[in-house]
Every structure is written in C-alpha cells, then in structure tokens.
Specification:
Helix content is 5%, strand content 45%. By secondary structure, it is mainly β. The chain has a single domain, classed as Glycosyl hydrolase domain, family 43 (Tachylectin-2, Chain A, 5 Propeller). The strands form five sheets. The chain has a five-stranded mixed sheet. Strands 15, 16, 17, 18 and 19 form a five-stranded antiparallel sheet that branches. A hairpin with a 2-residue loop joins strand 16 and strand 17. The longest helix has 10 residues. It is globular and about 50 Å long. The structure holds beta-D-mannopyranose (BMA). The site of beta-D-mannopyranose has 10 residues, from strand 7. The site of beta-D-mannopyranose (BMA) has 10 residues, from strand 7.
Length: 333
C-alpha cells in the first residue's frame, strides 16, 4: 500500500497526549477528562456534543449548552490550546434574511467546518421538529443563517470540508420526532448551500448479531477527514439495552468521489461509555462525538465528544491506525 496522505493543514498545536504505556486501545482518553464541566457557565446545566476548529493560531468552537431551564442553546467559545475553553455566557444568535427561518426555537449538536473562505455551522435546528440548520461565519462574532437544509425530521447534519463533484456535500440522518428505533445515514448534494438533492443512502444500523453497539440507529459525527484511502468518518451508534440506550462511536471509510459508497466500517466500537463521566450524568451511557482535530503532518487526531449529555471530553488516536482498524474489522461486505 502506498504511503497514507492526509489532506488538510498541519496542526502542530493539536491537543495531544501519547497512548498510555501498556495500552493497546486504538483510541485512548485524555487523562484530565472531562475538559469542559457542566457548570462552566453561570447558567449552564450541561455543556456537551460540541464542535471546534482551528482558528487564528488557536481554536474556536460552537458549544451545546443546555441552561438551567433545560433549554438547548448554542454558545461560541475560544481557546489557545484546545483544552481550556473560554465559552461566552451569552447565547449565539444568527442573523437571517428570512424571519420565518431565523426565528430561534432550539438548537443542539453543532458541527463546524471551514469551506473555501468561511466557517459553516450545521446543527439540529427546531423548526416544527428537528431539522438541519445552516449558518456561516468568518470571525465567530457574526453568524449568518441560511435556509434549513432539509424538511423535519432530520438530525446529525455533517458537511464535508470541500465540494465533491462540484457540489457541497452533507451527511444527515432522517428521523422522526422522538428516539425511535431507526435511523440510516444519507448523503445529499447542493450547488449553493440552499437547495439539497441527489440523495444517496450511505449506511444503516448493523445487524444485532454482527455489531450490536450500532444496531438501533447511527449518525455521522465529526466532519469527515480526507485521506488518500478515502474519507475517514466517525459515527455514533446506539444499542437498546434492557436499561436504556447506549451511545458509542466507531469509524468508517467512504469513497472519495462517491462518499455514499462505504469501503469499510468498524465492527468494534472505538469508544463506548465506560468511565464514570460517560456512564453517569443527565443521560447515562453516552459517548457522542461532534468534532475532530487532525494534524496532517503527523496523523495525530483529537476527538471531542459529549459524555452522558453532561460534559465534554477528548480522545486521541492516529489516523493510520484507525484506518487499519476500520479495514481489519470491516463489517460491510
Ligand atoms: C440523541 C441526541 C443527542 C444526545 C443523545 C443521547 O438523539 O439528542 O443530543 O446526546 O440523543 O441523549
């Protein structure tokens, strides 16, 4: 196999900790998790399922902060090192040309990516049920909301970091009003970030006997990472146990030009809720990734994931090892 190439900028200041001595885990947790506590803001009940990107030599992010009325809101944050975050106490509000669309109802589970000349935010946006909201910013101060990408109900809208075949591209997970036991990932294209179509099926929950952690529903996580082997996608999966839902995450490799074609998909999870901060909180047993930083020069990777719908943590890995793991444990035949 030729040498792996990762597309994207070098990120020498990526938050990082080496794999603990004696560990054989493909991904390992940061020793000082969780990095963001539930009550970091004066009025926050929980801060989790949040998205970060490199910004002006440091990092910026959009954070899901549920307040003490248990309203779901988004907040902007900045960090020099990706670990210690200054999250703004005021809620993020978008400007929007259309008041019907711009009227804020609720928003959660943001993702952020840089495309061409601006940062795009996608999130689960309340509009007669959850759908995919889209907005852009250049400075993380003013944010401009555009049309919702899809009809409700839809969640986990994740943009690709560049146009594919000349069009913007997004993964999403059509669903319904509740936590119903279904959910496949689809691929959609847009010429202009407003009209979305050419929908393609990407992947469905795995059979229970094959990979039970992802057998009930699945959803795309962080922005896919472009490599010479394909797009590296992290996705969460849900197991319905006798004691409630369990959210873990694993990995898949998607075709570079036709990303609805799955090259490989991990059978085992990478991270499942096992530590106290993942198992205990407002919603126990949740590990839910929404962002990844990658240093293309070294292949080091840092994933930000929400824990128990309460706090935010970091896990580390190496892109080449995760691709090998995905191929070696492939369940897509
Ligand atoms: C999902 C989303 C996530 C949440 C998860 C577990 O459907 O609502 O925000 O982390 O459920 O509660």
């Amino acid at each position: 196999m030729s040498e792996l190439k990762i597309v994207g900028a070098a990120l020498p200041n990526i938050p990082w900790e080496e794999r603990p001595a004696g560990s054989n885990e493909v991904m390992w947790r940061y020793s000082a998790n969780p990095i963001i506590k539930r009550n970091q803001l004066p009025d926050s009940n929980s801060i989790f399922n949040s998205a970060v990107v490199p910004f002006r030599g440091g990092f910026a992010g959009v954070f899901r902060c549920d307040d003490r009325n248990r309203r779901m809101a988004l907040h902007v944050g900045f960090s020099k090192d990706g670990i210690n975050w200054d999250i703004k106490p005021e809620v993020l509000r978008f400007s929007c040309d259309d008041t019907e669309i711009g009227q804020w109802v609720y928003g959660y589970d943001p993702r952020v990516t840089f495309i061409e000349d601006r940062y795009w935010v996608s999130w689960c946006n309340g509009y007669h049920g959850p759908t995919i909201g889209l907005a852009w910013t250049k400075d993380f101060e003013s944010f401009h909301q555009v049309e919702n990408a899809f009809l409700p109900y839809n969640r986990n809208g994740v943009l690709f970091p560049r146009k594919i075949g000349g069009r913007y591209a997004m993964l999403s997970r059509p669903s319904d009003t509740g936590h119903t036991a279904f959910g496949d990932i689809f691929y959609s294209e847009s010429p202009d970030m407003e009209f979305w179509g050419r929908h393609r099926h990407v992947m469905q929950p795995a059979p229970f006997e094959v990979s039970a952690w992802q057998c009930m529903k699945i959803g795309a996580g962080p922005i896919p990472i472009e490599t010479s082997e394909g797009w590296l996608l992290f996705h969460h999966g849900v197991l319905r146990s006798c004691n409630g839902y369990v959210y873990s995450f694993g990995s898949a490799l998607l075709d570079l030009d036709e990303p609805w074609k799955v090259i490989a998909r991990s059978g085992p999870y990478l991270i499942s809720p096992q530590t106290p901060y993942e198992c205990v909180g407002d919603v126990p047993n949740v590990a839910f990734p929404c962002a990844a930083l990658c240093d293309s020069a070294t292949g080091r990777l840092a994933i930000y994931y929400g824990c128990a719908d309460t706090v935010t943590s970091l896990a580390f890995g190496r892109v080449s090892e995760i691709i090998d793991f995905t191929r070696n444990t492939n369940i897509e035949k």
